[in-house]
Amino acid sequence: MFRSLFSSRQRTTRRKRRSLLQGIEHLEPRIVLAADGLSIVLDYSLDTNNFFSDQTRKDTLQRAATVLESRIGDELGAITPTGGNNWDATITHPGTGASHQLNNLTIPLGSIIIFVGARDIGSLGVGGPGGFQASGTSAFLESITKRGQTGIDSSNSENTTDYAPWGGHVTFDSSPTWNFGNEQPISGENDFYSVALHEIGHVLGVGTADSWDNLVNSSNFFTGPAAVNANGANVPLTSSSSHWNNGLESTLPNTNALQESAMDPNLTVGTRKQFTVIDWAALDDIGWEVADTFAPTIDAISNITVDEDSPETLINLTGIGPGGTEVQPLQISVSSDNTNLTGTPNVTYTSDETTGSLKFTPQDDQSGTATVTVTVTDGGLDGNLATPEDNASLTTSFDVIVSPVNDTPTIAAIADLELVENATSQVVQLAGITAGANETQEILITATSSNPALMDNPVVSYTSDSATGSIAFQPIATRSGSTTITVTVTDAGLDGDITTSGDNATTAITFDVTVNPINDLPTIDAITDLDLLEDANTQLINLAGITAGAAETQPLAVTATSDNPALIPNPDITYTSANTTGSLSFTPQDDQSGTATVTVTVTDGGLDGNLATPEDNASLTTSFDVIV
């Protein structure tokens, strides 16, 4: 049975000038599938004023369509005119404003077709569903009116709870200063993306569908349960009942961010609007199957403990996804609340992967705790990470505990030192003394000598926490040789107690002290003056106390001279080197009297131990008088 059907449902809406931003990658009019749900075909064949000759404008319009497709799961039946089944779609021509018929359009399964264009219309945009007239079988007519949806009552629209348009039209004003880019509009620009979302929303039935009208009460409030839940009460409408009341705010999906709703009648110049929770709720209430949105996911990360001065640390990230059944691109960022401890962490991640990693390197000589926050962000309903207004994110945090390590204390090196035998007391300055980088423990300094026969252990002068100190020492008299002085700096460890040596750290430096020998004078005891009578016999005088000098062993020679050989000839010496005793003898000259001074000289072999090389030999003389 054939019959005719007519619908003039071509509502258009006009928007006052106020304005908002965004853009995505899309090409010519085409079908973009949203999972197994709605596909919006944008048809530019009636763009007779060539408004969309610039691909950027098409891209932005397609991005708006993609956002709305992304959550609508309805799969509308196809409209396929054949044989005696005929229909004419009716719209307002977007290029001329005249009523326009399209004969026997074929609407693919799951699709609606929106004819777009522009002209000077005095408002930013108008849009709405198309009308039609048709004749044919009941099944064909239902394919137009119901498109497989069960909540549509063709005989009594007041019973309709669903919506299934064949498509419609959207006309944009050709005269404003538009923002067609991905970026937010600047002052004075009207955001094309925001207007596109709004007008396609009207094509999808917001303010235009029978199922919308059936939810508007006598007080001009929208009573759809999803919208009421989102608003917390019935939703006030404008006087035309086709928009939310001006200025109505709602949150963006999966965020706490408030925004003026997309389907209120105004758009502030220089701003952008996304579809909010209440806008999506309206689509749900009028019969569209609006899918849930999901925050992206990432597995929790356990706290991690590392030692101070540890090398780079790698942490694996798992469970990364867009959430639910979503397929948006993802990005991961990481931050630390204490970069003085962790440095700046960095992430390695490729979108669509379920795993990634982050790395950080504890800063030198630092300990403490930092909280590292990892944020996963999805591309939102428009699938574009560069348009953050609709992006959803999830954060997970973990603590990095850097345990302190007792750094070794420090002290500056000390140069070797040369002294001569019998040197006076020496003071050597100590510098660069610390408990270690960024540490303040108590410090103890000790010093030892490796050759106590040459030098006793030095005496340390130091007050803890000071960066300087000193040691004092003196070679033992008449000693020569070398010794190694070891200066040890000990800190009090992590427990700060110098008496608990188990955790103390030490640093030791050494330097050599060389004591060069000098040739000490040899020795001989003094000899008492001697009184004799004229013509006295031969005299023998003992010599004692003969040495090469303190702690010396060079060969020795002993000689004696008389300053008056006419009275006392030069004495004869009897001495064997290394002995401490010897003797001299003399016989006064006959028949002589007077006084003679006898000088006894002891000579050592010098530092080279060689009496034949007099340059370094040392001598000591002692004298006595002989009185005849």
Report a brief summary of the structure.
The protein contains seven helices and 35 strands. With about 625 residues, it is mainly β.
Protein described:
This protein has seven helices and 35 strands. The chain is mainly beta and 628 residues long. The chain folds into four domains: 284 residues, no CATH class; 100 residues, Cadherins (Immunoglobulin-like, Sandwich); 100 residues, Immunoglobulin-like (Sandwich); 98 residues, Immunoglobulin-like (Sandwich). The strands form eleven sheets. A four-stranded antiparallel sheet has the order 1-7-3-4. The chain has a four-stranded mixed sheet with strand order 2-5-8-6, with helices on one face. Strands 15-21-20-17 form a four-stranded mixed sheet.
Q: What is the strand arrangement across the widest sheet?
A: 1-7-3-4
Outline type = rod-shaped
Radius of gyration: 55 Å
Number of helices: 7
Uncertain runs: 1-35
The biggest beta sheet is recorded as: 4 strands, antiparallel
Number of domains: 4
Q: Report the structural category.
A: mainly beta
Q: What level of helicity do the residues show?
A: under 10%
SSE layout and pairing:
Elements lengths: L1 E6 L31 E5 L11 H15 L16 E7 L6 E5 L7 E9 L5 E5 L1 E7 H8 L21 E7 L4 E2 L10 E2 H12 L6 H4 L7 E2 L2 H7 L3 E2 L12 E3 L6 E3 L16 H9 L18 E4 L5 E5 L12 E7 L2 H4 L3 E3 L7 E5 L7 E11 L14 E11 L13 E4 L5 E5 L12 E7 L9 E3 L7 E5 L7 E11 L14 E11 L13 E2 L7 E5 L12 E7 L9 E3 L7 E5 L8 E10 L14 E9 L1
Parallel strand pairs: 2-5, 5-8, 9-10, 15-21, 22-28, 29-35
Antiparallel strand pairs: 1-7, 3-4, 3-7, 6-8, 11-12, 13-14, 16-19, 17-20, 18-19, 20-21, 23-26, 24-27, 25-26, 27-28, 30-33, 31-34, 32-33, 34-35
Helix pairs in contact: 1-3, 5-6
